[in-house]
Structure formats: structure tokens, C-alpha cells
Amino acid sequence: MKKRIIIAAVLALGLMMVFTGCIPGDGANDMLNQAGFFKGVWHGWIAPISLIASLFNSGYSIYEAHNVGFWYNFGFYIAIISEFGGISLVRSKSCKR
Question: Which of the residues 35, 69, 91, 95 could staple to 64 if both were Cys, CB 3.0 to 4.6 A apart?
């Protein structure tokens, strides 16, 4: 039992480190290297983690300021909707049963 808890904690810590590797506002993007569609999708998926990280480090944000515009916004929006909308669809199906 303790072994499973330790393994789960190590995996959770590893996943958090992977997710925060490309967090918005980390300095990876600037005016010459702007975030595009796929970075928008990624930033939308890790938005809850970015929110928590921004509480502890003011250099991080939920949204990348240096982006290409519509395509970044579209990817970000699609990821947010699929993440939170998908959860509500699963919940509504299980509540109807």
C-alpha cells in the first residue's frame, strides 16, 4: 500500500514538472518567436496548472502575451472548451443514470 502511494506521488511530481516545462510567460516566446496554434492548445490544457504556478511566481501567466493572434487564441479556446466541457458532459451522463 505504501509503495503504491510513493509511486503515485513520484508520478504526480514528474507530471507536474513536465506540464510546467512549457508554461506561458516562461520566456521561451518573444516578438521574434511567437506562440502559435499548438502552443495555444498546450497552454489551454495546462491552464489550471499555470494558474497555480502564477500564484507563486509572478513571471508566469495563464496566457502567452507573445502569440500569433487568431490561431493561438483558437487553439487556447479549443483546449479550454474540450477540457472543461468534456468534464461536464461526463458528469451529466452519469447523473442521468
Answer: 35
Q: The pTM is what?
A: 0.66
Taking residue 86's Cβ as centre, other Cβ atoms within 10 Å add up to: 10
Average pLDDT, the chain: 80
d(CA 78, CA 44): 8
Q: What is the largest CA-CA distance in the chain?
A: 52
For the segment 53-81, what is each residue's pLDDT rounded down to a tens digit?
888 888 888 888 888 889 989 999 998 88
Distance (Å, whole) CA 8 – CA 12: 6
Residue pair 52/25 in contact by the 8 Å Cβ criterion? no
